[in-house]
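Predict the structure of DegT/DnrJ/EryC1/StrS family aminotransferase.
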Amino acid sequence: MKVPFLDLSQMAAEIGDELTQAAARVIASGWYIGGPEVEAFQAEWAAHCAADHCVGAANGLDALVLGLRALGVGAGDEVIVPSNTYIASWLAISAVGAHPVGVEPDPATHNIDPTRIAAAITPRTRAIMPVHLYGQPCDLDPILTIARSRGLAVIEDAAQAHSATYRGQPIGAHGDLVCWSFYPGKNLGALGDGGAVTTNNPDLARTIRQLGNYGSERKYEHTMRGLNSRLDPIQAAMLRVKLAYLPAWTDMRRARAAQYMNGLDGAGFGLPHVIAGVDPVWHLYVITSPHRDDLAARLTDAGIGTLIHYPHPPHMQGAYSDLGLAPDSFPIARDLSRQVLSLPMGPFLKPDQCQHVIDILRELNSTYRAAHLG
Ligand SMILES: *Cc1c(COP(=O)(O)O)cnc(C)c1O
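Done. Here is the predicted structure for DegT/DnrJ/EryC1/StrS family aminotransferase.
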């Protein structure tokens, strides 16, 4: 039995007709930038996130950049960001001329460790960027408390957390700004690039809307040096179709995560630890193992697709070599990058496929155990 890591073509098989009809609607409408599909999706996504405002962007990285700029973060400022996130979180901070200041994750949850944040704050710190990694919300209350007491903004990177909840409330407006990606492989994905920012702050929403539209609210009047970063109508139409399925697709991810959790209990792998008060959406189901590379190779041989999120933390990438950060500047991020393995996960992963992955993993672990004892 072959188990792909994630097969997006299966989604096309299920809802392809609806997607085609929605695309045809946009083609016939004559609206190719902005317009009713974008307005409708923004309203629907804001409602889904229980946020007052949603502003579309061209992609998730731009959503973060627009958010940071709207907060006034710029040259010489520092932004606190997890040491083990996808590099886009760091790149957004660098793109506005600010300096990413890494903070180590809690190795149990892989999310930023709130108890380490205070020590990273300097007079130049302007914002904290928690990342809800793998679809599990960070522990936001202590982060918001530190931010408020120190006068810092909170800009959440929610690119992996569509529909996740924190203390019963959807991710979408806990911090000042919440940034989304609709990259095709995300839990809510377009058929190309897309992004958005949600917020309860009307002034920030307005600034982001202008910044993404050449710094303009009225045609040919430019009050800021903006960029061109808008959600396009075809993608908005695709997202509207898929948003209707998101609750069911999220339930299926949760069911498979529960199956992995039960099936792999006691099998010798590090399993995801979920903190109290959150409901994760399992963008990724990530286990840890000291035998990660061997495990990945054997799973590939068995026809099971896996990926590594992420093989190199940002501070160990060439893009940040100028910061002069040694690999062990962030030892938790470095160690996790050597042990994490993302198992097949998605709304179309079938229970028997999931069970097959579990069986093979249990078998592999007994060989490691035997080798160790021998
Ligand atoms: C996907 C992702 C982004 C970037 O989104 P794009 O739409 O690909 O630009 C940012 N942060 C995290 C954590 C992501 O997973």
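The chain has a mean pLDDT of 97.
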